Amino acid sequence: MTRNAFSRRTLLIGGAALAAALPFRTLAQGAGPAIHVMKDPNCGCCSAWIEILENDGFAVTTEASAGTLLMRYKLDNGIPQEMASCHTARVEGFMIEGHVPVADIRRLLADRPDAIGLAVPGMPFGSPGMGPEDQREAYDVLLIRRDGLAEVYSRYEARS
Hints:
By secondary structure, the protein is α/β, with parallel strands linked by helices. The protein is built from 4 helices and 7 strands, in the order αβαβαββαβββ. Strands 2-1-3-4-5-6-7 form a 7-stranded mixed β-sheet, sandwiched between helices. The longest helix is centred in the N-terminal third of the chain and has 27 residues, at 2-28.
């Protein structure tokens, strides 16, 4: 009887410890917004941007795509060709094109404007995943409206 009581006690303590630890495991795996990234499998800057998202708590999944297929995905999801960059993501119904800073993605998710999403056209040096921020060139984050027009959502000044 003592042996069973000890086993039950051990089981209860172990279960309580496991239950207490589960939220931390989920946090470590990115319990933040789920974001799916379409990218060229050989692109290092895409991987660097993804790492920034993961470090900020996003739950990132990726899918390899390149060339015409990736451009078709962008166009089919409302990203104008002149706003294209190297990778495209979807988060909570919004499209994210290129090296958009995490703060802008979080603001988009909080504000929830009637828009397709955000874009950083091209690959500006110093944008997230594209080199050191303290040496960045100036760039804008654009809000892509549903009518296809864009407006400046955030502006990042050059640093040197």
